[in-house]
TrEMBL record, chain A:
UniProt keyword annotations, A-Z: Signal
Keyword Signal carried by entry: yes
Domain of life: Bacteria
Protein name: Amino acid ABC transporter substrate-binding protein, PAAT family
SMART domains, per the entry: PBPb
Domain Solute-binding protein family 3/N-terminal: residue ranges: 24-245
InterPro entries: Solute-binding_3/MltF_N
Signal peptide: 1-21
Automatic annotation (TrEMBL), chain B:
CDD domains tied to this protein: TM_PBP2
Localization of this protein: Cell inner membrane; Cell membrane
Keywords: Amino-acid transport, Cell membrane, Membrane, Transmembrane, Transmembrane helix, Transport
InterPro entries assigned to the protein according to its UniProt record, in alphabetical order: AA_ABC_transptr_permease_3TM (IPR010065), ArtM/GltK/GlnP/TcyL/YhdX-like (IPR043429), MetI-like (IPR000515), MetI-like_sf (IPR035906)
Entry function: Part of the binding-protein-dependent transport system for glutamine; probably responsible for the translocation of the substrate across the membrane.
Protein's UniProt name: Putative glutamine transport system permease protein GlnP
Membrane topology recorded in Swiss-Prot or TrEMBL: Multi-pass membrane protein
Similarity-based family: Belongs to the binding-protein-dependent transport system permease family. HisMQ subfamily.
Organism: Desulfocicer vacuolatum DSM 3385
GO MF term (any one): transmembrane transporter activity
Major place of residence: membrane
GO cellular component, one term: ATP-binding cassette (ABC) transporter complex
Gene Ontology biological-process entries: amino acid transport
Domain ABC transmembrane type-1: 63-252
Length: 245, 265
């Protein structure tokens, strides 16, 4: 009797996913990075990346479950298997590739430098002797700390760094150009005072990708790559891109 | 035993446990954790120098900042605490109310929120834009000042009423009585909990990393965020904090021993 019910339960269990043929992917996202991903006034996670994921859901059998996760520790959570994927404007770098697997790139990014209007900071050379802020562990942080003569401060969230710049405690903030533009040009309060000073030039183009745990099953990665490809080919990607940028 | 009319009511924070007399001897909780932690650090650095030694080399300036914050805020909180304690026992209604209100408010707001408030919220006003280290010290000082106030109040209350009455009858005025007779005697009751608060404050100082103050924890997090070696970085951070607080708790217990010297301990 017990055996039978276990068998039935097992069969049911095996049938359910195949019947709907749906793959659930839990996604971690640090939604403090406007306009890429952020929490809007209705307390829902929105932005370029969440909309892209939604479009990918439509062309595939994936069901994304986005969870707002603090950036500091987001990679540790992936390694610990707390979620399947990170969609949080993660730049694909060689160091990161050693500890995680990336999907195909979904966005090209440059590092933008925000400064106060009239601060006379126009190039990398002007940064010498200045106080710079960035979010801990982001590309902006990694790149800026290598510039000679810069005093580096690392913040938990990019918004706190921008606030400190606005209050005059640091001279520049370095972050992804789209985010920098959002704060310096779009934000009602900050845009009066701050400007996007310049873009840090990089020798190699920098791309954002969805990060997966290294050594995890490749099925989900393949599904995500296929869906991303379809969205790009159908022109849906360009529509979302134009909406946000 | 304390007289019922003068209850000794010392608040003990969450500082490291102060060893008691029966813990004496070579093998006790303190020596196991202390030498264990030191041994762990040395062992890890020898086994995997690429990781652990690198973390350890990354931390020293953070240790310095942690000490700066801790020592400066303990002095600030002692000054605030002394006046709060005196205010709390004052006969003057206004002073008493002000001191009590301060304690109520500060103890009702989490330290993390206070840090955010003083740095980011008040930072919106130009004349209050203090840089991160002074902000952290002021916030910690104000918070612990309230706790210290309670310690001082209890310490003063522990002195027998007759001491004050005797001093007054010998012609001391109120201030002289307080500073020359009562406070010097209450020192013995006040110092151990102050030492304990000091250790608690050092541990709580890890919260200031939220203000981008480069203390031990922030340095460890920066290291981890670049190398992704979370286990190695936070293990080292925990061990370093442990070693520091254990040294301090030893110092506090030694001090307590000396204070109790004449009571035959």
């Amino acid at each position: 009797m017990l055996k039978k019910s276990i068998m039935i339960a097992l069969i049911l269990f095996m049938c359910v996913p195949s019947a709907f043929s749906q793959t659930n992917i839990t996604v971690a996202s640090d939604a403090t990075w406007p306009p890429m991903e952020y929490v809007n006034k209705d307390k829902t996670i929105t932005g370029f990346a969440p909309e892209l994921l939604a479009a990918m859901e439509k062309v595939s059998d994936i069901k994304f479950d986005i969870r707002n996760t603090a950036w500091d520790g987001i990679f540790a959570g992936l390694a610990a298997g707390k979620y399947d994927m990170i969609a949080s404007s993660v730049s694909i770098t060689d160091v990161r590739k050693k500890v995680m697997t990336f999907s195909d790139p979904y966005f090209e990014v440059k590092q933008g430098v925000i400064a106060k209007k009239g601060a006379n900071i126009k190039s990398k050379a002007d940064l010498a002797g200045k106080k710079a802020g960035a979010q801990i562990g982001t590309t902006g942080f990694l790149v800026t700390r290598k510039i000679k003569g810069v005093t580096m401060k690392s913040y938990d969230e990019i918004g706190l760094a921008v606030e400190d710049l606005y209050n005059g405690r640091i001279d520049v903030v370095v972050c992804d150009d789209a985010v920098a533009a959002d704060y310096a040009l779009t934000n009602e309060q900050y845009s009066k005072d701050l400007s996007l000073a310049f873009l840090l030039k990089s020798d190699t183009p920098e791309y954002l990708g969805f990060a997966f745990k290294k050594g995890a099953s490749q099925d989900k990665l393949k599904l995500v790559n296929d869906a991303l490809k379809k969205v790009k080919e159908s022109g849906e990607y360009d529509r979302i891109f134009n909406k946000w940028f | 035993m304390a007289d019922k009319s003068h209850p000794i009511n010392i608040e003990v924070g969450d500082g490291a446990a102060i060893p008691v007399k029966k813990d004496k001897g070579l093998v006790n909780a303190w020596s196991i954790s202390f030498f264990g932690a030191i041994g762990c650090i040395i062992y890890l650095c020898l086994v995997d120098p690429d990781m652990y030694w690198e973390v350890l080399k990354f931390l020293p300036d953070g240790i310095l900042v942690t000490f700066q914050v801790t020592i400066a805020s303990i002095f600030l909180s002692l000054i605030i605490g002394l006046f709060t304690g005196l205010g709390r026992i004052s006969d003057n209604k206004i002073i008493n109310t002000v001191a009590s209100t301060y304690v109520e408010i500060v103890r009702g707001i989490p330290l993390l929120v206070q840090l955010f408030y003083i740095y980011y919220a008040l930072g919106r006003f130009e004349f209050l834009q203090i840089s991160e280290l002074p902000s952290a010290i002021i916030a910690m000082g104000i918070c612990y000042g309230a706790y210290m106030g309670e310690v001082f109040r209890a310490g003063i209350a522990s002195i027998d009423k007759g001491q004050g009455e005797a001093a007054r009858s010998l012609g001391f005025n109120k201030t002289q009585t307080m500073f020359m007779v009562i406070l010097p005697q209450s020192w013995k009751t006040i110092l151990p909990p102050v030492g304990n608060e000091f250790i608690a404050l050092l541990k709580d100082s890890s919260l200031v990393s939220i203000l981008a103050v480069a203390d031990i924890l922030r340095r460890g997090r920066e290291f981890a965020s670049v190398t992704f070696s979370y286990f190695e970085a936070y293990t080292m951070v925990a061990l370093v904090y442990l070693v520091i607080t254990l040294i301090l708790s030893k110092a506090v217990s030694k001090m307590e021993e000396r204070l109790n010297y004449y009571e035959g301990y």
